[in-house]
Amino acid sequence: MIYGPAEDSYLISKYIKNYSRNKKILDMGTGSGILAREALKYTKKVTVSDINEECLKNLKRIRTIKSDLFENIKGRYDLVIFNPPYLPRDKKEDDESALSTSGGEKGYEVLERFIRELRHHLNRNGKALIVFSSLTKKRKVNSILKKNNFRYELLEEKKIPFFETLYCYLIYLS
Description:
Low-confidence stretches: none
Mean pLDDT: 94
Radius of gyration: 15 Å
Oligomer: single chain
Order of helices and strands: HEHEHEEEHEHEHEE
Number of strands: 9
Largest sheet: 7 strands, mixed
Helix content: 25-40%
CATH class: Alpha Beta
């Protein structure tokens, strides 16, 4: 299953142009590839990765790496873009669908692993753009960032009708 673009994808997509010009970029967990295609408007040095091989097969003329987060990623990047699966695990959801939506039992575990490993893949002055949900527990994400010596800037928050707020962060090393 390929995660199709939704409110979170469009939110983070708006900020790619601000940090991509002539930069070396990694689109982590690319899904449909919408964020990589946006980055390609500003630089040709775009690499995409995903754990789902089906996602990678749909992306032509872009360097692809099958990887579970940074597991198979070598090198460093100026910008890492990540729209992670961030919802708490729903026991009724099938495993294939959960791969695209669930960030773990509490929702932040995938993002926490990403943050712990990120520093080893950023160039000097490198940055990351991430998006996550209020269902992921914003305070917990902030705490994880601080614990791993990252600073963050809230670029935008967007209320989704009825139950959720999305947060788009720019993060960088302290």
